[in-house]
């Protein structure tokens, strides 16, 4: 059973994923899959360089994902161009993971799961929720506040996500509370999985 983990920027998806890994579960990440596909010699590399120019390359010839992120999060059109290149390849990888773990419980973190209608690629979906102020403060530590706000604008509001989710984790309190919710989630999924 492949379970999708989603939520808006700074919600705590990676923290939930880390708890699951510590509990011994296989947890994958759509962003890591996409970044691997951008490496020289991998399927998306040439198409991305062709689409965005050599200005996205580092000195060693690899794609500078930070620079690419700044470009694509500046306009919906540029983001759509990148996703038209990477998402079919990411979905192929997700399909392979789902097939590999059809008898076991595995998780895949995907921030844009609902934004790009990936629901059908998962058996169950977990949404991690946090208030906007909490999320932006967390994300600002990683990206800076301006960039966190800009990226947040590209994500669906929780009102839409919650209508489509199977399980909700509220990351509005402390780590212990979050960990207990993850343990309850796993218990419920294990019962569903058989």
From TrEMBL:
Keywords: ATP-binding, Coenzyme A biosynthesis, Cytoplasm, Kinase, Nucleotide-binding, Transferase. It is an enzyme of class 2 (transferase). Transmembrane segments: none annotated. It comes from the Bacteria. Pathway: Cofactor biosynthesis; coenzyme A biosynthesis; CoA from (R)-pantothenate: step 5/5. Signal peptide: none annotated. It holds the Pfam family CoaE. One of its GO terms (molecular function) is dephospho-CoA kinase activity. It is found in: Cytoplasm. Gene3D superfamilies: P-loop containing nucleotide triphosphate hydrolases (3.40.50.300). The keyword Cell membrane does not apply. ATP binds at residues 10-15. One of its GO terms (cellular component) is cytoplasm. GO terms for biological process: coenzyme A biosynthetic process. It catalyses: 3'-dephospho-CoA + ATP = ADP + CoA + H(+). Its EC number is 2.7.1.24. Catalyzes the phosphorylation of the 3'-hydroxyl group of dephosphocoenzyme A to form coenzyme A. Belongs to the CoaE family. This is Dephospho-CoA kinase.
């Amino acid at each position: 059973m492949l379970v999708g983990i989603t939520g808006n920027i700074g919600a705590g998806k990676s923290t939930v994923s880390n708890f699951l890994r510590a509990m011994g579960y296989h947890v994958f990440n759509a962003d890591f899959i996409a970044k691997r596909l951008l490496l020289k010699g991998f399927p998306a590399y040439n198409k991305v360089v062709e689409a965005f120019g050599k200005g996205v390359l580092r000195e060693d010839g690899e794609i500078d994902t930070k620079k690419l992120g700044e470009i694509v999060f500046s306009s919906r059109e540029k983001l759509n161009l990148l996703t038209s290149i990477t998402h079919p390849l990411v979905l192929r990888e997700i399909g392979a993971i789902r097939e590999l773990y059809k008898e076991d419980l595995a998780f895949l973190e995907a921030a844009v799961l609902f934004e790009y209608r990936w629901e059908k690629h998962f058996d169950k979906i977990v949404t991690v929720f946090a208030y906007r102020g909490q999320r932006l403060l967390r994300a600002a530590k990683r990206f800076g506040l301006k960039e966190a706000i800009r990226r947040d604008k590209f994500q669906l509001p929780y009102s839409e996500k919650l209508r489509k989710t199977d399980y909700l984790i509220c990351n509005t309190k402390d780590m212990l509370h979050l960990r207990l919710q993850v343990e309850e989630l796993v218990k419920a999924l294990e019962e569903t999985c058989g």
